[in-house]
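Saturday, quiet lab. Running sequence design on the structure tokens for the scaffold JK sent over.
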């Protein structure tokens, strides 16, 4: 399979970063944005207001016409998990059968409890899904800083081909057939990052943060095992690697949301108008854990905190007073 052209659906910070990656890998890239004014601005300035200070690569062409991006040989879906089904429906008339869709969102659909690959498989059954995830900030990737991520697809050959197509000297992709493991790592770590941000905002110290990362990872592994993820996937870039990155930096929108909560802001205002996927994922993650009998006390505390049912101090007290047990 040859990917001469690549379409990127979504021109937020991560979409712009991946468009630049694809261009550096030698492809012509159609970068689609919903807002025509945004497209016109990107064409005029060769920069996106979503990622200021980062120039678009010469081979990136901003487009307002979805059919142009949909006509590509490989399409990257860089839309939020909660909007993925709508985006896939809009894209459907413009796709050729067999064109792979690489999904770059990290979350679980709240209303249906579907993982991102299941959303696309139901909406676009003739287009094989892949998932790209791992420890990566858009600003770092756009500037060509060294980054390694994971690309998962249901078939080994497809995973390897997409990974090869997007690899550059500074953007390395490992590949796997464990779609579910990569999806779970990306979705669950966002919820845990909110907890770590809240602890930092509350001034609980480095020891508490380390404990949250370690015990949060234990929750992620239990959830992954219950839903069919491979242990080695969760130990890799898209699991542990992404968790470590997201739980320790204000560049993460989920960590920043938790930080604001820890400093006393309300759940309604703590996101400051930015999308934090973990806020939408937390309720469904907790529901799915309960269905499988999986204990996720940190994730449950985040869900209760976001819903306004519990204060941070009460959440800390509840976590610290849990019965002692073997690790």
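Result came back. Writing it out in full:
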């Amino acid at each position: 399979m040859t990917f001469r052209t690549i379409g990127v659906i979504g021109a937020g910070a991560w979409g712009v970063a991946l468009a630049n990656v694809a261009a550096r890998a030698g492809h012509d890239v159609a970068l689609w944005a919903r807002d025509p004014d945004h497209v016109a601005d990107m064409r005029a300035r060769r920069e996106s207001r979503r990622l200021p200070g980062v120039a678009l690569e010469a081979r990136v062409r901003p487009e307002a016409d979805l059919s142009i991006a949909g006509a590509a040989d490989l399409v990257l879906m860089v839309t939020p998990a909660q909007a993925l089904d709508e985006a896939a429906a809009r894209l459907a008339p413009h796709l050729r059968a067999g064109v792979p869709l690489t999904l770059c969102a990290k979350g679980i659909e709240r209303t249906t409890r579907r993982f991102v690959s299941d959303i696309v498989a139901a909406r676009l059954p003739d287009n094989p899904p892949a998932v790209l995830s791992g420890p990566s900030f858009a600003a770092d990737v756009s500037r060509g800083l060294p980054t390694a991520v994971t690309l998962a697809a249901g078939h080994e050959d497809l995973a390897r081909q997409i990974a090869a197509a997007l690899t550059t000297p500074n953007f390395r992709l490992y590949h796997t057939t464990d779609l579910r493991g990569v999806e779970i790592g990306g979705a669950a770590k966002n919820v845990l990052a909110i907890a770590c941000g809240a602890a930092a905002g509350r001034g609980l110290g480095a020891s508490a943060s380390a404990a949250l990362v370690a015990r949060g990872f234990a929750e992620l592994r239990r959830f992954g095992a219950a839903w069919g993820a491979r242990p080695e996937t969760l130990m890799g870039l898209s699991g542990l690697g992404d968790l470590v990155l997201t739980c320790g930096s204000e560049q993460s929108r989920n960590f920043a949301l938790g930080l604001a909560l820890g400093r006393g802001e309300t759940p309604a205002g703590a996101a400051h108008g930015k999308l934090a996927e973990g806020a939408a994922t937390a309720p469904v993650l907790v529901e799915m854990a309960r269905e499988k009998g999986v204990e996720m006390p940190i994730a449950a505390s985040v869900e209760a905190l976001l819903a306004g049912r519990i204060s941070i101090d009460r959440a800390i007290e509840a976590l610290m007073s849990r019965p002692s047990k073997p690790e």
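Notes for JK: The chain has a mean pLDDT of 95. Strands lie at 5-9, 28-32, 60-63, 74-77, 101-103, 129-133, 147-153, 171-176. Ask whether to fix the surface positions before the next round.
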